[in-house]
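Input.
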Amino acid sequence: MNEYPEIMTMSQAAEFLQVSTRTLQRMVKRGEIPGRQVGSQWRFDRDQLREWVRDGGSVMATARAQQDLIEQEARKLGVDLPQTLIDLQQAALKQAAKRTKE
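Output.
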């Protein structure tokens, strides 16, 4: 498969990243990679995966990608993010940065 869709399934994302589906499942379970669960299935944004790889697959990249996704969805829906969600995202980024330094 040469051209990957913008939103990929688990198997497409695994092929895109050139890892096994099982490896990708473990990464998702540990929260190491940006993705979103839709019902019982996982979906992955192609551009977020590219950015994640470029950033070295860091927890910080995952947290930033998740925050970006939340902000994109809020803009699409035309709603403001509640301050508590923003606070939670900022705390998550700080924790990720702390873990990266350790």
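The mean pLDDT is 81.
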